[in-house]
Amino acid sequence: MTEKGVKGEGEGKEELSVDERYSQWKSLVPILYDWLANHNLVWPSLSCRWGPLLEQATYKSRQRLYLSEQTDGSVPNTLVIANVEVVKSRVAAAEHISQFNEEARSPFVRKYKTIIHPGEVNRIRELPQNSNIVATHTDSPDVLVWDVETQPNRHASLGTTDSRPDLILTGHQDNAEYALAMCSSEPLVLSGGKDKTVVLWSIHDHISTLATESGSTKSPGSSGTNIKSASKLGEGNDGPHESPSVGPRGIFLGHEDTVEDVQFCPSSAQEFCSVGDDSCLMLWDARVGTAPALKVERAHDADLHCVDWNPHDENLVLTGSADNSVHMFDRRKLTSGGVGSPVYKFEGHDAAVLCVQWSPHNRSVFGSAAEDGILNIWDYGKVEKVHGAGGETMGNYPPGLFFRHAGHRDKVVDFHWNSIDPWTIVSVSDDCGSTAGGGTLQIWRIIDLLYRPEEEVLAELDKFKSHLLTCNP
User: What is the pTM of this model?
Assistant: First the structure.
């Protein structure tokens, strides 16, 4: 397995093997990272998501993390709730963060609870109003909703019965495996599947399972409600009762192939977008019907795998594709006739892009993860700065590329920015293609000298000027 790369600065380019690229990256960890934790996974996880903050201390915080275990059938598939110790900025010693064993588990990551999942977990999404509530996608038409606090801890052994979801969302007519999103303002869930539809639900529609505060007079789906568990269905996992289910608020038709990803508009619970294997990007408005409000017929030159809507600028939408690129669209420049071009194309991967996500703290920053094992951090605000006066590209890197995380040795299947701890990211790779199996979970934060204002950094470096000048190159 090889990966394209550059050896040296000259004209000659050679291919780096994955191991060579990884060794090169690891040697730079003490210089480029403020903190990094490497955690070996026995079974690959196809999704990783931050959960609620549990505890704040002087030098670290403790936070929930949601993972999964995609097994070979010898033991059940699981949804894993872990507790993570997140070391705070400028605490970890540089010489310590690069001293890890790739085959070992990190002391910063500890399993807290295991839920026996009916089928493999393809996608996990947490409810912003209460991140103890998560939804999962598996190889079925249903979306499963879990209250991870009330679900009992289970031992994963062959023959163990599945844990029972707290709620099942029905409405797809074929498997819905990946496209899944939660609304930031209301308890709404969005999904897409092989039936070419986008389906919308309100968790409030099953009021006895996940409900508003006691005595609330707010109507189902109203904004600003605080979701909490009103029952403990998970405690009766060994009983004969079936999980309750709820049907959709709406089913939206327009795609001509599998819907691969969906996302809500950050400022409107009634607006959302979707992408699919038909190469289309579609914007929807539930207030005006079940047909797309806007459609980009050929958003990429191949299947689209992922989409995200900028939480700081509702006009900007990112898409990632099997054509190895990320496109940024401005919805003000799209037309209902299916015509629309990206305002910029970001080309810094050598394989299909699997995941894109805007930073929750910086309006121009986003990440993209791909099958090439790379997680790129981009800043579209820097695109113009890498072009010369005549428009030519300066340097050997793509315009807008801000940082390249090369700590994974196989496809990076998911990552998630930490909304509580700026510039902290969790990423996970499925290592079955490069090793005997398993996966790698990494939690990392780049050194602040790379993203702080230039004047601040120069002032700080100036304090150590005499020391830096005496260092060996």
Answer: 0.88
